[in-house]
Amino acid sequence: MAHNKLTPALSRRGFLSVAGASLALAGAGRFTIATAQAGTGFSLAILHINDMHSRVDEISRFNSNCSPADAEESNCFGGSSRLATAIRQHRAAHEEAGRATVTLDAGDQSQGTLYYTTYGGRAEIQMMNAIGFDAMTIGNHEFNRGPENLARMIDEADFPFVAGNIKLTEDSPLAGKIAPHLIVERDGEQIGILGITTPDTVFLSSPGDTVSFQDEIEHLREGVAELQAQGVSKILVLSHVGFVRDQQIAAEVDGISAIIGGHSHTLMSNTEEGAVEYATLVSSPSGRAVPIVQAFAFSRYLGDLTLEFAEDGAVISATGDTILLDASFAPAEDIEALIEPLRAPIEELTRRPVAELAADIDGSRETCRAQECEMGNTVADSMLAEVAHQGIRVALANGGGLRASLGAGTATLGDVLTVLPFQNTLYTLEVSGETLLAALEHGVNGVEEGAGRFPQVAGVRFRLDLSVAPNEGRVSEVEVMGSDGWESLDPGATYGLVTNNFMAGGGDGYAMLRDGGMNGYDTAIDLAEVLARHLSENEPYAPSLDGRIIQ
Asked: 0.85 exceeded by the pTM?
C-alpha cells in the first residue's frame, strides 16, 4: 500500500529561495531540496510521534475507543501495539538501507484515556520502553499530576527527557531529571537534540512553584551556541510549542537543522486532503531551509523524515511523510501482552462511584436536541467550571453528544462514560460575538429533524423562536454573563469559548467555529472526566433548568 513506502516524497510548492537552494523534481512527483552545498554522505531517518494522549489501545476514526464492530471491519487505527509494528518495520528498513535512525516523541503522552487516569503515565512509559525511543520532550500535559508524578514517569523511562527551557529550583522533584540538551552518535556523526516545552504550561497544567519556563527562542539561541561550541552542527529541535510557534523559531534562530514538533495536533501529509504539507520549510536568518514536521496526534500517524546534511549542519536533502497506522500494520504481539493485564483495573475503575445524585438528570434525545435540558446544563456547566480560571465566559456543547440520562442515587464512572462515550476532549478558543451568534443560529436550525447539533450552553442565554424559519433569525436576545451580570452580546467583541474538539473542528456543521475560531487549543482532557469531577465536587448533585434557552 502507498503509505507503507519508506521514503515518500517531500512535496513543496514554491520552495523558499534559500542559499542557492532549488526545488528539484526527482521523478514521479517526488521532490527534494537540492542545494549547491556538498553533502557529508551521512543520512539520518527520524521516526517521530507527538501528542499520543494515552491512546494505548487502538482508536476509531474519531480518535476515540474503537468499537468491536469497527475492529471486526478493520476500521481501527493506531494504538501502542500497531505503532510498535510500524516503527520496527520502518526502523529495520532504514537500517537495511544503511541509514541511521533516531526515534523521537515530541511530548504529551499523558492525559486522554483511563490508562492515564489509572496509572498516571506509567503505562505509556512502559509502552515506549518496549518500542524503543531515543528521546522525548515534555508536553504540558506531562505536568497534569504535578512535578512529582512526572518525576516518577521519568524514573521509569529507559530513554532521556530533554526540555532545556524548563527551569527548576534546587528542591524541585524534577531536579537533575531533565536534560538541557542531548548529543547522540550515529555512524560516527554527532547529532544534537534540543527540547522545548510551551511556557503556556503554567496555566494549561500544574507545574507547581518549583518549575518555570524560559522563552523558547532565548533558550534555543543559547542551546545552539552551546552545541556548536562542542563541535556539533547537526541540531534537531524536539518541540512542544505548536506549529505556528515552530515557524517563528525557525525564522529567528540560526543553526537549527530541523524541528520535530507537537502540541498543536497539526496534520501534515502530502496525500491527505486539507493537510499541511510535510514538511513545511522556513528560511532561517542565514537563509538555510529548516524543515518543520509534526504527526497529528492520538497515535493515528507515524512521521518518517529522512535528512542529509552539509558540513555546517544545513539540511541539503529532505524526504518523508506521515504514515497512517491502519489495519495494514498488524498489532505487535509482545506489546499486546503488556497491555492485556493493564485493562482489568480499568474495567474495575468504570464501576467506581463518582458522586451521589439528588435527582434524576434528564439527558434524553427528545429534550437535549430540542430545548434546554438538565444534562445539557450539567455538562456545559462542568466544561465552563474546568476553564473558569482562564477567563473563559461561554460553554457550548452539542445535544447529540449526550447519550444517556442518569438516575438519582450513586453514579459510577461507567455511568458517566455512558453519557459521554465518544472521548471528545475539552477545547478552548476565542470567537467574535458574530461567530458565536452564527453558531447558536446554526445549532437550532435542525430541531425539526432532531439534529444532534442543538446547542446546550453555559455562560450565555438566548431566546429561541421555532415559529421562525431556519436561518431566518430563530435566535434573539443573546446575553453573555459578565463580571457584573448579564450583558447583551456584542458582535464585534471577542469571547473565550469552551467546547469539544469535535465541534471546534467543524463537526455537526459548526464550520464557523473551525474557520472563525482563534487561538484554539485542545486540552486533551476527556469530557467524561470533566463531568465526573463536576458531579463529585457538587454532590449531592441536583440538576436544574434556569431559563438559559427561553422558548
From this structure: no
Annotated domain spans of the chain: 2-344, 352-550
Is 107 in contact with 138 (CB distance < 8 Å)? yes
The residue ranking higher by pLDDT, 211 or 37, is 211
pLDDT at 7: 27
- Please report which helix (H) or strand (E) contains residue 245, including its range: helix 243-252
Q: Quick check: 466 pLDDT over 50?
A: yes
Take residue 385 and report the three cell numbers written for it: 467550571
Residue 14's SS3 state is: coil
Cα→Cα distances 498→342, 436, 482, Å = 32, 11, 16
Give the per-residue SS3 of 321-384: EEEECCCCCCCCHHHHHHHHHHHHHHHHHCCCEEEEECCCECCCHHHHCCCCCHHHHHHHHHHH
Residue 229's alpha-carbon distances to 163, 194, 226, 427, in angstroms, are 19, 14, 5, 42
In the chain, the amino acid numbered 458 is A
**Alpha carbon separation from 90 to 120, 199, 242, 261 (Å, rounded):** 30, 34, 26, 20
d(CA 233, CA 313): 5
| Among the four given CATH numbers 3.40.50.1100, 3.40.120.10, 3.60.21.10, 3.40.630.30, the one describing domain 2-344 | 3.60.21.10
CATH superfamily of 352-550: 5'-Nucleotidase, C-terminal domain (3.90.780.10)
pLDDT tens digits, residue range 380-390? Answer: 999 999 999 99
Report pLDDT for 69: 82
283 and 256 in contact (C-beta within 8 Å)?
A: no
Write the CA distances from 317 to 17, 201, 262, 288, integer angstroms.
15, 34, 22, 12
pLDDT above 90 for 365 = no
Record the cell numbers describing residue 225, joined without a space.
551556541
Inter-residue contact 56 to 113 (CB < 8 Å): yes
**Torsion, Cα of 201, 205, 206, 211 (10° steps):** -10
Q: What is the pLDDT confidence band of residue 1, given thresholds at 50, 70 and 90?
A: very low
